[in-house]
Each structure stands twice: as C-alpha cells, then as structure tokens.
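Dear U.,

For the methods section draft, I wanted the exact inputs and outputs in one place so we can describe them consistently. I've listed the two proteins in the order they'll appear in the manuscript figures. Please don't edit the token lines directly; just add comments below if something needs changing.

First protein:
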Amino acid sequence: MARIDSKVIFVTTSPRTPSKMIPEIELLNAHFSGQKWDNDTQRAFMELLKEENFFNGEGANDPAFSARDRINRAPKALGFVILSPTISLTPAGFELVNSKRKEEIFLRQLLKFQVPSPYHRPSANSAEFWVKPYLELFRLIRHFGSLKFDELMIFGLQLVDYREFDEIVKKIDDFRVSKAQHEGNYKKFRAEYLDKELRDIYAEDIIAGNTKTRETNDASVTKFLKTKASNMRDYADACFRYLRATGLVNISHIGKSISIVPEKIQEVDYFLQNTDREPCFIDNEKRYVDYLGNAETPTLLSDNRELLEQKISSEFPHITIPKTATLQELKDIFADEIERRKEQILTDQVTAIKDYHLFDEINSTFEQILDNSLYDTPLMLEWNTWRAMTMLDGGSIKANLKFDDFGNPMSTAQGNMADIVCDYDDFGLTVEVTMQSGQRQYETEGEPVTRHLAKVKKETNKPAYCLFIAPNINEACVAHFYALHKMNISYYGGKSTIVPLPLNIFIKMLEDSHKASYVPEPKHVQQFFERSNELANSTDNEQDWYNGITKEALNWLNE
C-alpha cells in the first residue's frame, strides 16, 4: 500500500509510455508467475529484461528498485498484475498481453483507477480524495471539446473530488476569459496564474512552514512552489499519455491540447453516462483487486450488441453483419476493419510522401522540433524522421512507432527494436532518433542502438548500417560509434557501421534530395555508409572521422 501525500490528482507516471508495460508484464508472468516478488526475483527480472533488449541503462545501480519502479506502479495500480502473496497476471493483464485491441483494455482499467483505494491511501496532509481521475478528465475534455495542457495541469489536476467538477469547470472558464482579456506576454500571464493557484492549493503548508522538499534542504516558498509546479507538469504529461493510450483522444502537438476523436464521441458519451463515479471497495483489498482486475468491466459501447452493430454499419457500410455472429465475433470484425482502414490511410500517406507533396510540412516540423515548440517532441521526431526517410530515397521504410486508428503518431517504438527499419533489398538500415543530450545520450542510447542493428543483421542475413540522429551529438557517442567501426564483435554481428548526425545536418541531406536533378537511389545511401567505413579506417581518432563523415553528409549526393 502506498501513502499519497498530494494536494492534486494522483496518477501513475511509470512507465512514461503505457504500451511499454505490455512486454514487461508478459516477461514477468512467463518467468516468475507463482513466485514471491522480493529482492531476488526483482533482480532476476531486471537481468532478464536486459537480455530482452527492453533495458536502456536505467536502474543499473539498484536493479531491485528499478524492477519495483516498473511493476509496482502502473502495472499494479491499473490492475494488470498481482504481486502478493505471489506474482500473477489478472484477467485484465492477460487481455492486455493477448488482445488485438489493447486500447480497449487500457480504457477499462483507466476508468476504474481511483483514489482512495486499498492500494493508495491519502496521508493526513493530503487532499481528501474521492475520484476516478481518468473518468473525470474524460468528462472535462468532453465538456470543453478541447483542453489545453496548461488548463489540465493548473486546474484539471485540482479535481480531487468528482463532486467539485462544476467548480473546476468555472475555474477554467474564468482562466479563458482572463487570458482573452490579457494583452501582454502569455508566458508571464501563465506563470502568475499558476503561482496564484499553487499558493491557494498549498496555503496550509506555506502557513505552517512545511515547505522543505525531499530533494533539497532549501525550505524557501519559491523552491517549494517550483517543485510542486514541476510535479504537476509530470502528472499532466502522464495524463495526456495514458489517455492517448485508449485511442479515444487526439493530441494537437502544436497547440498542446487534447480532444476527443470525433468518430469516438459516441463511445465516450456511453461510458460517461454508464460508469459509476463513486470510488468503491476502499477498505476491502480482496474485493478491490477482483474488481480492478476484471477484464469485462466497466461496460463499454462495444459490449452493447445493438449499438456495436449500428457503429459498424455507420463506419463501414459495405460490411454485411452476419446474424449468427457472436458479440466477440462482431468485435473482431470491427477491429479488423479498423486495422484495414488504418493500413490504407498509412499507404496513402506514404504515396503522398514519396511524391514530395509533404516536403514543406516535414521540413517545418523539423524546425519546430529544433525549437522544442511541440508537445511530445521525442514522438514527433521519430514520426517525422520516418516520413523523411520515406521521402529521401527508395526502399521499404517501416516505423516501429505506434499509430492510432487514423494514422496519427500515438507512441514511440518499444525498447526492443530500432525506431525505423529500412529495407533496400541488398542491404538494410536502422534509424535511431533521440532528444537526449549530454552523457545521458550515451548511457541510454549507445548500447541499445548497437543491439538493434545486430538484430536486423541477424534477421535479414545481409549487410546493414545505422543512422543515429539527435539535435546534438554527444562526444561519448561519437567515440563509441567510431570504435565499433573498427571492432569485430561477434555478439553484434561483426563491425558496426553507425553514423551519428546532428538533426540540422540530416535536414540538409533531406533538402539535397529534394532539389537533386535525379531521384536518389539506395546506392547513394549505401555509398554514404561505406564512405564512413573508409574514413574510420583512414583516421586515427574519432573527431577526424566524425568531422569527415559530417562533411560527406553535407554533400552526400554530389557525384
């Protein structure tokens, strides 16, 4: 049981990307089901996780803590795993691992997550919680049509009791009026508004002098409020990401807002009308665990046969619904048609991209990424780089990020695979992107990038290279990738040709392909990476190699 010491909505923040818990709980169940969840199994779990390529250098100093951070938070809190007395998946956990429509499984569990619960009890200094946070946030978004990130962070997180819904609505209405009337800088206006709200939320702590935070000995009110604002930003970001995992919301990365997908409004209205807003089984852990792990509750629109048939007929009028089909068969028919529609949307996107119809948009998105002006910059970098590679040259370019039902980027690639895999018939190419910088870039990206490349070599049994893109390249990554050009390591499939390039250099390569008098071919890509091998063999240090290959990139299509 966790004690909550918070004055705003408490939600799960680990893992940051919800879909990443799926392979991890599957691994947990496969190897540790029926065992006790203790330091020994936690360390053993992390060792297995590392071998499965999901481990990105986090928690190496304390594997047991890292395991608890991954499993004791969202997987347990959302009812996917049971850790006591022994490890097991709940029915909801099995569905998450095996179901075609994982978005529906995430939705059911988010709608049941509540505070307080036997898992999460408020402390004496906490807010008086009485809420199912995600259910009420869906209601708030539906009420306004669209909710800005700032609005959810500053006001939505204050919805600690569902009975205060109208009060929070009024606060957002007042904020919007004040913002419309304000003629100065928005950032300053927002900062002043946030400071005022924080001082109201934490008034008792400030008066009592309870302003020391765990991370520092600084007990100043300024530091205290800055920490609370940072925590709220993390919670709001988690809300956006977990709501998006249901497939029911759109994220405007430019406007930094969230809204219900128009085609999904009927589904949202259904569960808003039919899901009990009251928390339940507060003092009965067994009944709460059974309730939370139930894969069939709460009732969704897709559980109503008549409404499901109407929705299938509305969205896919060409389908003849078999009268003898069971409800589950109807759900499968609907899921298959949604998947076919998505694949067609992505196919149409690729056609438009290859014809350079989206060149200006792709270029503009890269500029916004460099300016860090988008909501989820890592996701947008991965998605836009896939579009750029598709446009750059021939070949089959596969993005391993997750797309929603309408071909929009939903979440980044899982940790066991390259971000993008390009097949050029005679050779392959992996593309890895990151917004990380400094030493953190090397620690989290260096070794996994090499493993992903080795995996493609092994699976395709042909030569393969890797392009590593980031706004800025850390010197440790340059040294690491240079060394791998020269080291024949059987574990990695021999020598590894990995070329790190700053994003602005990659953008220049993209511009060159657009203005070239001919259509770039796979041979031009291979020539570039073979040139990297030549430079690595003819230089005696990483800086000379890096400077040389960067210069080659700036003129990569010059004959």
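Second protein (the one for the lower panel):
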Amino acid sequence: MSSPVPQLTWFLVRRSGRRGLHSQLLAAGAAAVGALILLVLTAAYFGSDTRAHATAWRTPAPDRHGTAVQTLGTTYLGDRPITVVSLAQLPGREATPAPPGLTGFPKPGQVYVSPALADLLHKTPAKQLDDRFPKVSSYGTIGEAGLGAPQELVAVVGRASSDPAVSTAAEPLGMFGQFGGQTARAVVSGFDSGEVSVFTSSDKPAVSIGVAIVAVPVIVLAAAAGRLGAARREQRLAALRLAGATPRQILAMTGLESAVVGAAGALAGALAYCLLLPALAEIPFGIGTWYTGQLWVGLPWLLGIVAFVAGLIAVSAMLTLRQVATSPLGVAQEANPRRTNLIRLILFVAVLLYIYVTTTSGSTGSGQQLAMLLMFYGAFWLLGPWVVDRLGRITARFARRPATLLAARRLSDDPRGSWRTVSGLVLAGFVAGFFTVGNVGLDDYRFPGQVAIATTSTATARTAATEARTLLHAAGVKATVTASDGDAEILSSTPGVVVHVSGGAAQLDTAVTALSNVVPGQLPYTQAYVNAENQVFTGRLGELGTAALAVSFLVATASAGLTAAANVLDRRRVYALLRLAGTPLKLLDRARFRETVLPLVVLAGGTTAAGVYAAFQVNKLFDSTISTSGAVTLAMCVTVGALAMFAAIGASRPLLRAVTQDPAQTAD
C-alpha cells in the first residue's frame, strides 16, 4: 500500500491559497540567495587555488639530470610586477616539453609575453620597458594555461645555454633578494610541479578566512528559509494531528514540502550562478580578475550545494514541529508562547571563556582560529533568541506607548522569529567591526628614487657602477651612482650598486631598463620590489575585508526582507484581530519597526564590539593601533546596513496592508 503522504502534501499545497504561495515563494527566494552565495564562495575558494597553481610552473622542482636551465626574475614597471622566466635548452639532452601556455619550448632569441604585457609594451616607451627584453620582430603569446589572471604581466625569454643571463645567474643575494627569487636559477626537466608565485600564495588562505566568516550567515539564511511560514504550517499540521495523523506523517509531509520548495529555489540560485559567471570573473582580487573556467565549481559541487540547501531547509522546517507532535491542541489554540531557557546564556558564556583562554594561552593555528570563529558564531546564534525574549519582557514592563507594548509582546511571544529578522545584520556587525577598525599592516621600506643591483663582491660593484654611469647618461637619466660594500640599506648588507635617480616615475623606469644587463643574472630593483611581500599581505586583507562586508550586508538585507515578509503572513490573523479591535495600520507598522530596532541595537552593538575587540587583539600582534579612518568607516557601515535593513522591512508594508484589507475574513 502506497503512502498517502505525497498526495496529501500536494493537496494541502494546492489548497493553501495565495497566502501559502507567498510563503513558499519567500522560502524559495531565500534558498536561491543562499545557494547563489554559497556557490560564489565555493568558486572563490577553488578558483584561488586553481589560479595559484597556474603560476607554479615558473618554479619547477630542480633536477640535476634535467634537460634545461631556467631562471626566474621579477622586475617592476612603477608598482606593477613583471615576472620574467628565462629558459635555455641544455645541449646533448632530450627535448624539454613546452611550459604551460606556450606552443613550444622557446628557442634562443624568442620572447613570449602575456596579452596584458603585450598591451603594456605597445603603450609604454621602449626605453622604459621594451629594452629590458631581447629585440625581436614579434612577440609570441602566452596562453591562458600559463597565466593566473588576464592582467598578469609575464614574459618568457628563450636563451642559449651559454648566455650569462642563465649560465651565471646565482641564488638571490641579500634579504630582499630572497623574496620571489630575484634571479633564482635551476636545472629542470619539466614544468609539472613547483611552488606557486608569491603573488598568489596568500590568495587561498585569505579566501578561506573570508569563506568561514561569510558562510555562517549564509547558512543561517538558508536554515531560516525552512522556518518561513512556520505559523501557517503549524496551524495546518496541528489540525491534521488532531484528526489522527501520526507524528511521522506530519514530519514527512513537512520535509517533503520544504525539500521541494528548497530544491526549486536552490536550482534557481544555481542557474543564476551559471548566468553570472562571466560577470563574477570580472571582479578583481589579488593579481587581477579571473578566467571564467577558474570560477566553475563543477557539476558535482553544484548539485551537492543544491542538495545541501534543500536538505538544510527541510531539516530546519521539521525541527519547528516538535510542539505540533507533542501538543497539537496548544498549537491550534496558540496557547503556548515560545520561551527560551537560561542554558543558552550559560553555553554562550562557556564558549567565550574557552575562546579567551585559548587565545591568551599561546599561539593558535589557522585551523583552530577558524574553529573558534565558527564557535563564536554558533554561540551568538544560540544566545540571540534568549536576549530577544528577555528584552521583550523588560520592554513590556516599562512600555509607555501602544507601539512599544505591541513590539515587546511580539518579542517575548516569538523570540526566535524576531531574532531571525535581525540575525543577518547582527552577525555582519562582527565582520564590520573587525575589518574596518583593524589596522593590520607591516611597515614599508622607504627607498624613494633608488635603484639597486646586488653583486657578488665590492670589486664587481665598482666595475658595474662605472658601466651604470655610462648607460644612464646614454639613456638621458640624471642620477648619482655609487658602489657599496654592503652599507646601503636597500642592498641589505650585500655589495652592489645604488643609483639615486632624479625625476619622477618615468625616469625611474628608464633607469631600471638601462641597467637591466649591467650584472648578468641580477636584475635591478626598486622599493616596489622590496615592499612587494608586505603589499601582497596587506592588500589581500584589505580586499578580503571589502568583499566580506559587501556579502555580509547583502545577506543581512535579504534575510531581513524575506523574514519580515514571512512574519507578516504568519501573523496575519493577529494583525487582523488588532485591526478589528480598532488598531490603526500605522500603529501596527510602527510596532513592526520597533520590534526590529530593539534587538538590533542590543545584539548588533554586541557583535560589533566583539569585532572591534578582535581587531584590537590582532593589531597588538603587529604593534599597530586602531585605525581612526576605520572607525568612521565602521560608523558608515553600521548606518548603511541599518538603513538597508529598514528599507527591506519597509518593502513588506504593502503586504501588511493587503493582509488587513478584509480583517473580518482574515481573522476567521
């Protein structure tokens, strides 16, 4: 005998009317937003790893029995890094396979450049950039397989094995030369594996932190979708329970309906992700924008996230039916207000104490830090309804206006529903407090107008200085050239040549170009090269903060709007009875806003303060102070977020008017 659950579920869905359809559409909308953002976060996580590994071929594993010699160098045009890979086939060895993105192994005199570098070479005067490379009639093009991003500047130069640029290139000299391998040399046999570029090595760790910070509010939004329309569902299923339906059948009907609605919404979000892929690829991060293929998560992950969202919504919906299963008559009569227990506060305090003891007892790994972040989010999610419940009781005791009294009664009667409305912005407050006030950074080295070339000895430095004066004079660059035995700070205790250039950035670039071949195997560098590692680190943090803020407030706004609309539908009978009692519509609307403002001020203020405290602790690690401009940014973020939330809630005002147009019929 087949189960009657599917047929009965379909019958009830069809007979739920326009109000039921509205609740289902809202739940599907929340599922779509949740699935879309989870797919974008997953794409960023895997895409950052794919992009980083696309640069690994430039530092392949050394092989003393290899077939080719490779040197890796980094030069700069202004503050833009240009990666230069020189390759030479060793005589008498088998042919070396072509690097990724090249049609063949470069022959001596051949130069391949990335499309972005080709465009830059075309726009920049030859004496500032083009003369750094061998003269060729035309450049080859490095394909997508050899690049991390469309904007990446990369050149591959083919050389003879006897060329000093590859035969005499030494390991990096000095502290600054250790960064990125100024002219690191290795004998290689292929390009299958290697270390990722320093310009992409921090992408995945940074994205991992962002995913951990943003994913929790997104999952909360998806879970809240299963509770949209909970009051309507409880009333309907309580009647079935009183008519003889078993708890198992009630749960099965709820799970089936919610799973189908969630799956439909998640599929819509997945479709939106597929359509938005070209636009998402244009969002810059790190070394530039993305190739579309880097952000494609693959069909298994796409279907897995759709199934996860649908399952999360179904489980969330079924968890709301505990009271229906145990006390259907109380639900039907709306007799039991949804109180919260003190255990929530105790667990919250316990989690905070654990995090405090762990962070102050010593260093913690990145995995443990992410785990504690998730624990903090979970603890605050657990505490939220308890605070809303107590806040409603306290407010009701001191209320002097009808709107405030109504808001307080709603807070204490349904603290979980009221918490869901503001939870998105409350959790976003932590992100805003941490990333705006935080002032993490490393002090930059300041060598304005200086160009340095490291050498192996003081004698070599004197010879190179003489040649440098001649080359700079021929290039029309006014500069002071000195040979240093290692006392120059920019050389970091290494002998070399220091050039003080007069003029602006163009003259500095011209000087770097003129000096490119003064010391074979050692590229000249400026302060942009010296500070690059610091800039990569702080730059990723800044971009991560901006992205996390944007996504967090987007989720908060969507959550508030969807939940506010669902609350109107769930409470339409209460609103109708109040309208029949003579309550003005403006008063009901004013009570809705106060119901949002009260917990928002208390809870969002708490998470924002926690974010500021976390930023302060991180700042102490880097001996930096709270960012003053960040405090202004924080105030702006909180203001804009609150206004966006109120606008989202205000968008449900027409729905409130619609459900109270015929109060007698609605109340019945």
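Candidate sentences for the figure legend, describing the second protein: Confidence is low (pLDDT under 50) at residues 170-182, 329-333. The first helix runs from residue 5 to 14.

Thanks,
Y.
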